[in-house]
């Protein structure tokens, strides 16, 4: 499968960069990050609060298939419509600390755009732990499936 | 030199990455590897030791000489661990594009 999303996480550093090009005008791409209802749809999360402005804050809540709730929150430091969002991000009850996230939006053509996310962690090991999380979930899921099959 | 035997630490070092790319072409003796670097032979041998302990390099005795081979399977482990994270964002962004595409035509 082709990956349109590139993740750059250099060893020994405490940041990572995610880039993705979209077949969407930049204004529309930005909207997907600005409006609570849209964020909720593509992130697959419940948006408790999202104040899309400087000094605004946000709070998301996600429930996994087992019914465990995970909450995320942060504060918006910079909000330039159609161009940039600079915010903090904290995955509550997880040992990843607080991240500084910069999201930059640029139009490539009338109908295409690019998103660049730059995420800075407090330490290198926090970044690596977070990066390995989906990997760990993947292993757990494979393990659970195996148990389901073996249990039959 | 750090003594951690973590594979990610192992490839974090530029000299060790250079050693890996040399040996990936063909198996080499420690002496032949060291000739490519200005660092002391001792330093290079320490790097080789770390790479061997992480199984990125494997040893093979041929006559009196020891040859180091590159272990691509181990390297693949390193490349693969980022994939689920990337896939997670790939899925989210694909969904975003879909939703916004419908939104546009509404």
As a whole number of angstroms, the C-alpha radius of gyration of chain B is 20 Å
**Hey, which two chains have the biggest interface?**
A-B, 32 and 24 residues
Per DSSP E runs of 2 or more residues, the count of β-strands of chain A stands at 8
* Order of strands, widest sheet of chain A: 1-2-8-7-6-5-4-3
Per CATH, the architecture of chain A is 2-Layer Sandwich
What's the order of the H and E elements of chain B? HHHHEEHH
Distance from N terminus to C terminus of chain A (CA atoms, Å) equals: 32 Å
Q: For the residues shown, what is the average pLDDT of chain B?
A: 86
Name the CATH homologous superfamily of chain A. Answer: START domain
Largest sheet of chain A: 8 strands, antiparallel
**Number of domains as seen in the coordinates of chain A:** 1
Give the SSE map.
The complex is a heterodimer of chains A (152) and B (106).
Chain A: E1 6-8, E2 15-22, H1 26-34, H2 36-43, E3 46-50, E4 57-63, E5 69-80, E6 84-91, E7 98-107, E8 113-120, H3 124-151
Antiparallel strand pairs in A: 1-2, 2-8, 3-4, 4-5, 5-6, 6-7, 7-8
Helix pairs in contact in A: 1-2
Chain B: H1 7-12, H2 14-25, H3 30-34, H4 41-53, E1 57-62, E2 65-70, H5 72-80, H6 83-105
Antiparallel strand pairs in B: 1-2
Helix pairs in contact in B: 2-4
